[in-house]
Specification:
Blueprint (H helix, E strand, L loop, with lengths): L1 H32 L13 E5 L7 H13 L3 E4 L14 H13 L3 E6 L15 H6 L3 E4 L4 H10 L3 E3 L3 H6 L5 H10 L5 E4 L8 E11 H6 L16 E8 L3 H14 L1 H4 L2 E8 L11 H9 L6 E2 L13 E3 L2 E7 L2 E6 L2
Parallel strand pairs: 1-2, 1-3, 3-4, 4-5, 7-8, 8-9, 9-10
Antiparallel strand pairs: 5-11, 6-13, 7-12, 12-13
Length: 339
């Protein structure tokens, strides 16, 4: 009887050990799944799909931008509906979706560059499964309304590139510092950014996945399957935000939405970019940053203000879904990509 009890105890111990190993394996797989895949970097002669998932671009912008991509050593391939027009959008939802799916599925395409922002990118999300982003990971380049596509890509487990679109490249003739950084990044040279100290900066250091973009677009994706801010509560996040044409009062409401959802409380750090074209003073705030500081100061995490990203030059490229270290101190801010 005692021998049987001993055998049972040994069996139970082995079962517990097996269950523990299985649990650790599941946890490890979930952690791995939370780390987005980095698409391959580009090389000379690679083909870049040029699409318009949002608003219609000007023809001269399209041509000048494609000329710049050729000068950079790439082969631009313009989507069939990149020039289309439908109620202010660059074609119907079906047409814009068709171009994006073509670019994602075509194995000869190495990256996707959007012509411009505007409106309309969220229309495409319900028609794109996570597998479309993961099947052939490739860099998607854009900002503003393209934030919706970045968020969907990162949520599906693929990094994305928040940066200048064809419009900005053509306007600057590809000769500005931002374009130079983008060119090097596409070839695999991840930048480390150093910015001056801002009086409202909150000192500290944090590490996490870099996500974000246009604040109003992000808030419009709240709690959907494409919301990168709804990533697992165990995933540390560094959020960067920017916006344009939104009042202080409206941005206040957006922040309160993030607060009520528990998003702000989960963040490890915040990077505040450009907020442009708003009326001030408003609500007794001298500017947007003053209102933001009232919300973000109590969080007790590092916050960097006036980071060069958004609807104002310079708008430096940021890799969404990549691990970064944010360091904010009296000497300024450093944003560094981690292996």
């Amino acid at each position: 009887m005692r021998q049987e009890q001993g055998n049972i105890c040994i069996f139970a111990w082995k079962m517990k050990r097996t269950a523990l190993l299985l649990l650790l394996t599941v946890v490890a797989l979930r952690v791995a799944a939370q780390l987005p895949v980095m698409p391959p970097f580009l090389k000379e002669g690679d083909r870049i799909a040029v699409i318009s998932p949002c608003s219609q671009p000007e023809e001269k912008t399209l041509r000048a931008g494609c000329d710049m991509l050729r000068q950079w050593g790439y082969v631009p391939v313009v989507g069939p509906h990149a020039r289309s027009l439908h109620h202010g959008f660059a074609g119907t939802t079906a047409e814009r979706l068709s171009d994006l799916l073509w670019a994602l599925r075509d194995s000869t395409i190495s990256a996707i560059m959007c012509t411009r922002g505007g409106d309309g990118a969220p229309h495409l999300l319900p028609h794109i499964s996570p597998q479309e982003w993961r099947r052939q990971p490739k860099w998607l380049i854009g900002f503003s309304d393209v934030t919706a596509l970045h968020s969907a890509s990162v949520s599906a487990g693929v990094m994305s590139l928040h940066g200048s679109m064809l419009h900005a490249i053509s306007a600057q003739q590809g000769q500005d510092t931002v374009s130079a950084v983008l060119r090097r990044l596409l070839r695999g040279q991840l930048p480390t950014y150093h910015t001056p100290h801002h009086p409202l900066d909150q000192a500290g250091q944090a590490e996490g996945l870099l996500v974000g973009g246009n604040l109003s677009v992000l808030c419009g994706l709240a709690a959907s399957p494409y919301d990168c801010l709804s990533l697992s509560a165990t995933t540390p996040l560094i959020l960067f935000i920017e916006d344009t044409d939104e009042s202080i009062a409206k941005v206040d409401r957006m922040l309160h939405q993030l607060l009520l959802r528990g998003v702000l409380q989960r963040l490890r750090g915040i990077v505040v970019g450009h907020f442009t074209k708003y009326k001030h003073p408003e609500n007794d705030y001298a500017d947007m940053y003053g209102m933001l500081s009232d919300y973000l100061r109590p969080l007790g995490i590092p916050v960097s203000y006036a980071f060069p990203v958004g609807h104002q030059r310079p708008n430096f490229p940021l890799v969404e879904g990549c691990r970064v270290r944010l360091s904010v101190g009296p000497g300024g801010t450093t944003l560094q990509y981690l292996p």
